[in-house]
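tool=predict chain=A
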Amino acid sequence: MTSLFIDEVAQYLEVQGIGIYSTDNNRNLFIGNLPDQPDTAVGVFDTTGGIPEIEIPLFMPSFQVIVRAAAIDVGETLVAQIRTALHNQYNLTFISNGTYVYNCNLTAQGGHIGRDDKGRDTFSLNFHCRVR
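tool=predict ok
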């Protein structure tokens, strides 16, 4: 269920203008990996999530968004856009006829986590959701 959910997250981020996911042409938004190119890219990764509810059909997926950029200000702008798009979201679907999201929130503020081996700035944000 979660890998399908992060696909919905990536599609939603594309609609929000954060990156290109739906085509291979100039793609800079990925799920489950973050290839070496392009320099500015966003990856959405499954994380462990919470324990599903037993008595009601409620799942608690979590995911991490990694942002990489050649310039720190570009990375900081993407982080702010992602934070706005995903944090404090309630009662919606990320895509038409998608998973119903009761809430989606940051688990921590997120921010700069250093530079990669090519000197590109890297950022991390972690989210937790309740969905059905």
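The two ends are 10 Å apart (CA to CA). Residues 40 and 100 are 30 Å apart (CA to CA).
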